[in-house]
Design goal:
This protein starts with a helix and ends with a helix. The protein is globular, with a radius of gyration of 14 Å. It contains two helices and five strands. About 15% of the residues are buried. It has one domain. The longest helix is centred in the C-terminal third of the chain and has 18 residues. This is 16S rRNA G1207 methylase RsmC. It comes from Geomicrobium halophilum.
């Protein structure tokens, strides 16, 4: 069985910390981020999936959260669907 780290690598994410941080640059200013952490009461990591946009001229950052407190299978499903949608739109 493939690990979550391997599956995110297959989707084009760079692995920051195995099973915890995954990053994919969409453009010079836009990045997709998946962060995992251990939470009390859960046997597995819980994940957050969000997009960060950096506006260098105004020095502002924008963050849009797509998923919070998600299981590994749910975050993989959601991110895979999101990546598929992005590729279809291009």
């Amino acid at each position: 069985m493939r690990t979550i780290t391997e599956r995110f690598a297959d989707l084009g994410f760079q692995v920051g910390i195995s099973s915890q941080v995954f990053v994919k640059d969409l453009s010079r200013n836009t990045t997709l981020v998946v962060e995992g952490e251990r939470k009390k009461g859960y046997a597995t990591y819980r994940y957050m999936f969000y997009k960060m946009v950096d506006y260098p001229k105004t020095q502002q950052k924008y963050e849009k959260v797509y998923l919070e407190n998600a299981s590994p299978s749910r975050v993989l499903q959601h991110v895979t669907s999101f990546i598929y949608w992005l590729e279809k739109e291009r």
